[in-house]
Amino acid sequence: MKNILLNQKAERDELLGRPYQPRETKYDFGDLLTNPLIKLITGPRRVGKSVLALLMLRGRNFAYLNFDDILLLENWDEELVMQMLDQVYPGYDFLLLDEIQNLPNWDMWVNKLYRRGKNLVITGSNAKMLSSEMATVLTGRYLQIDLLPFSLEETMQWKGIAEGQAIQTATLSDDYMRNGGYPETIQARSITKSYLSTLFDSILLKDVAQRHNVRNTTDLYNLATYLLSNFCNPISSNELAEAVGLSSVTTTKKYCDYLAEPYLFYYLPRFNNKLKLMKKAPSKVYVVDNGFVQSTAFNLSDNLGRLLENQVFVELLRRGYIPGQTLFYYRTRNDKEIDFVTRKGARVEQLIQVCYDMSGEKTRKREFDALTEASDELRCDNLIVVTASEDASIEKAGKHIEVVSVGKF
User: Which of 28, 48, 137, 269 is deepest in the core (most CB within 10 A)?
Assistant: First the structure.
């Protein structure tokens, strides 16, 4: 066990020596670490949760356990591990537990460590497991920090592109929309397709099929690929079951839930003040990063409009909006669609349309008419259209509409 921990310490020290792009977070690291609550960093695989934890703990005396290490899991002995931690990291002040969900009954052990006064930083890649188990066993004892792939702003910082470099900004913005923000791919776009295709398969097999004992992995893969190819579209379980050839709608719903757990897909419900009607309407499906669409989905066109819409959805997640609670889509009484409705408390906060190219008069009329109609129905005057590159202020039917380029948004 000591050798396993020493090898992990060498891995930790090597990681600490690398240069990293600081991540956007609303928290101050110093404030977080002085707080005795458990610091839980969640998000998809390979977005930099471990890096964020290392940046948070850099320069401090902390112990490290990586639960993506099969040797640690196979030789797990709770008491022995604690003894060896004291030897390998004498007098440590913090304990970092990386990818903790791989350890059986991890929540009970973490609860015990917390009661013993350990200052814990935890990372994990499974939404349902973490949220349900943290909520039941560790209620009120943790702070959750959500991490997603790099934002457009973080990507520009990493590339060293400053404000005012218009051509470079436009080029990178287009590249980001098409290829996404996974950290490993930003410096080497030539590997994006193979890297994300492999990561997609790994998430399906390791985080979904293995965890839930899914025997028919072909059905699971077909469903995931279909969702990717139909990103930003409203889809019902009945339609999905028929399209993919699954015999059971119940199984289809279950597989869709599984695919949301590792933060791969998100489902956005249609806004309705009546909960029963909201649940009956089809949800729109989104993917955590545009790169997955380009690397895995079967598409015959560039889908620039939908890629931009998906990018805006992920940005809204990054700002803390929660699908089904503070974030929805909407259809007016005349069946005009609003891409995003955000809510603050009981009040509708803003209505957002996404349109890649607003140059056509017919397109402008469609987007503006939908916004003005929804504005009256939902009593909201904060109206926005996000575009690829246009910025303008528009007056339409007595309403003020802000047209904002995605970079400014």
Answer: 48
